[in-house]
Amino acid sequence: MATAPAINIGITDENRARIADGLSRLLADSYTLFLKTHNFHWNVTGPMFNTLHTMFMAQYTELFTAVDEVAERIRALGFHAPGSYSQFGKLASVKEETEVPRAQDMIRQLVEGHETVARTARTIFPLVEEAGDEPTADLLTQRMQVHEKTAWMLRSMLE
Fold this sequence. Notes:
Distance between the termini: 62 Å
Helix content: over 70%
Number of strands: 0
Radius of gyration: 17 Å
Order of helices and strands: HHHHH
């Protein structure tokens, strides 16, 4: 059986591993937020039902695409992406919700979740810049923009 050639994309093996570790944390946070947002979409009630139900659907749909992009970047760096609840549970900073909170609390939790994902992405950025990993830098920039904007929009609903 032939083996694949070594990865030689101009980033050291050590830096690729460190970046992939950071992206694995980002993937876990993003997937946990996806699951939480989908849960809230299913279970929201109250006077803002239609608005929140629709908004949460747009958000979990965007997150569904994002987790695929993050996982594929991990693979492009030569590592396996985590893909189980137990792996995500060990890696994620976003807290899972097992109850059904009131709509306003759902919004607050999602603000916190989006801010957490943005912070996770930001922690990886210095290593990515040092390693000259422009594709990952671009991915992180896009993710931070989405999460910071979404947190702002959700936060605005709480005023």
